[in-house]
C-alpha cells in the first residue's frame, strides 16, 4: 500500500417513521476534518427532505451539521460524501508514568480520565491493571490492555445495542467495535492514561485497487495521550493506520453519534447504514 491513501467516502443513513413526523431537530457528525494524519479535499452533507443546514465545530473538535425540519415527513435521509487523503502517524516516544500522572496533565485531561456511564467497569480486571502498570513503556502497556480486551470480547454483530455500556459488553464477553472501544477506554482511564473515543471510517481492503468501490465500515477505536494523541484499534489488533479515517473525538459514543435528534411523531426505525469507499490514488 502506498504511503498516502486517497479515498472517496459515501455514508448514507436516516430514519423512517410509522406515519408522519411533524417536526424534528437533528445533529449529524459525519464529516471528516483535516488533521495531522489526514487532509480533507471536499465534503458535503445532503438531507432529505431538502432543507437548509448549518455547520459548526463542537467542544471536542468534531464538525456538526445541524438541521431543523418543520414540515411533515415520512422519512429522513442523510448522506455525507467526502474526499480524503490519509497517512499513518509516526509513533513517538511516550512520556514516563510520573509525568503522565503529574498534576498538570491530570488537570488538563480530566475529561478523558474520569469514567462515564458508558465506560465504567466495576471490579473486573484489577489484577491485570496492576500487571500492566508495571510495564515501563506506556505504548506497550496500552498494547497489552488492547490485546487483552480483544481476546476477552468476541466480535459479534448484533450482540449488543447502540445504547450498551462497557460493563454490559464485558459481562456478555461479546460486542462490536463500539463496545470493545468503551471497555478499552475504561481500562486505560483506570490506569491513569487519558483516553478518548474516536468515531470514523475503516477502509477494509488491505491491498486496495484504485477505482474499486468496497463496502466500508463506520468504525470506532481509541486514542490515548502519551505525550501526543496516539491511535490504536483494539477491535482489529492494530495501531491507527492510513485506512482509519477520523470523523470525531469524544469521551464516549454519546459525544460522537453520527446522527441523533428529537422529533414529534410516531415511532421510527433506522433505515440502516451504508458506507461505500473508493480508492482514488
Can you give a write-up of this model?
The protein has 281 residues and is an alpha+beta fold. The chain folds into two domains: 4-87 and 258-279, Immunoglobulin-like (Sandwich), CATH 2.60.40; 97-255, C8orf32 fold (Roll). It has helices at 97-100, 103-108, 126-133, 138-152, 166-172, 177-190; strands at 4-21, 23-31, 38-48, 54-57, 63-69, 73-87, 154-155, 174-175, 195-202, 213-215, 217-225, 229-233, 238-239, 244-250, 259-264, 268-270, 274-279. Strands 1, 3, 6, 10, 16 and 17 form a six-stranded antiparallel sheet that branches. Helix 5 (166-172) links the parallel strand 7 (154-155) and strand 8. Helix 3 runs antiparallel to helix 4 (138-152). The longest helix is centred in the middle third of the chain and has 15 residues, at 138-152.
Characteristics of this structure?
single chain; 281 residues; alpha+beta; Immunoglobulin-like; C8orf32 fold; 2 domains; six-stranded antiparallel beta sheet; 42% strand; globular
| CATH structural fold name of the largest domain | C8orf32 fold
Which bin fits the share of residues in helices?
10-25%
What about the largest sheet?
6 strands, antiparallel
CATH class of the largest domain, anyone?
Alpha Beta
The low-confidence parts are: none
As a whole number of angstroms, the C-alpha radius of gyration is: 19 Å
Taken in chain order, the helices and strands follow as EEEEEEHHHHEHEHEEEEEEEEE
Distance between the termini: 10 Å
Overall geometry comes to globular
How much strand content do the residues show? 35-45%
Oligomer: single chain
The total of beta strands comes to 17
Given helix and strand content, the structural type is alpha+beta
Number of domains: 2
Amino acid at each position: 500500500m502506498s504511503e498516502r491513501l486517497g479515498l472517496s467516502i459515501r455514508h448514507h443513513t436516516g430514519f423512517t417513521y410509522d406515519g408522519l413526523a411533524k417536526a424534528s431537530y437533528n445533529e449529524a457528525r459525519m464529516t471528516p476534518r483535516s488533521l495531522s494524519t489526514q487532509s480533507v479535499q471536499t465534503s458535503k452533507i445532503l438531507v432529505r427532505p431538502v432543507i437548509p443546514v448549518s455547520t459548526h465545530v463542537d467542544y471536542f473538535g468534531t464538525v456538526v451539521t445541524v438541521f431543523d425540519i418543520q414540515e411533515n415527513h415520512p422519512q429522513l435521509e442523510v448522506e455525507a460524501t467526502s474526499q480524503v487523503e490519509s497517512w499513518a502517524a509516526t509513533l513517538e516516544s511516550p512520556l514516563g508514568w510520573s509525568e503522565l500522572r503529574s498534576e498538570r496533565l491530570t488537570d488538563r485531561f480530566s475529561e478523558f480520565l474520569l469514567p462515564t456511564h458508558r465506560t465504567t467497569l466495576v471490579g473486573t480486571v484489577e489484577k491485570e491493571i496492576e500487571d500492566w502498570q508495571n510495564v515501563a513503556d506506556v505504548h506497550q502497556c496500552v498494547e497489552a490492555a488492547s490485546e487483552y480486551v480483544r481476546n476477552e470480547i468476541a466480535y459479534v454483530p448484533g450482540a449488543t445495542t447502540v445504547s450498551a455500556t462497557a460493563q454490559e459488553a464485558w459481562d456478555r464477553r461479546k460486542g462490536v467495535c463500539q463496545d470493545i472501544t468503551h471497555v478499552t477506554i475504561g481500562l486505560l482511564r483506570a490506569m491513569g492514561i487519558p483516553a478518548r473515543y474516536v468515531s470514523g471510517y475503516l477502509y477494509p481492503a488491505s491491498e486496495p485497487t484504485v477505482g474499486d468501490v468496497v463496502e466500508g465500515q463506520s468504525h470506532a477505536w481509541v486514542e490515548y495521550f502519551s505525550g501526543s494523541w496516539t491511535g490504536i484499534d483494539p477491535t482489529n489488533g492494530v495501531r491507527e493506520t492510513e485506512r482509519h479515517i477520523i470523523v470525531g473525538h469524544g469521551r464516549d459514543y454519546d459525544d460522537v453519534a453520527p446522527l441523533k435528534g428529537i422529533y414529534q411523531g410516531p415511532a421510527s426505525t433506522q433505515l440502516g447504514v451504508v458506507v461505500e469507499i473508493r480508492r482514488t490514488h
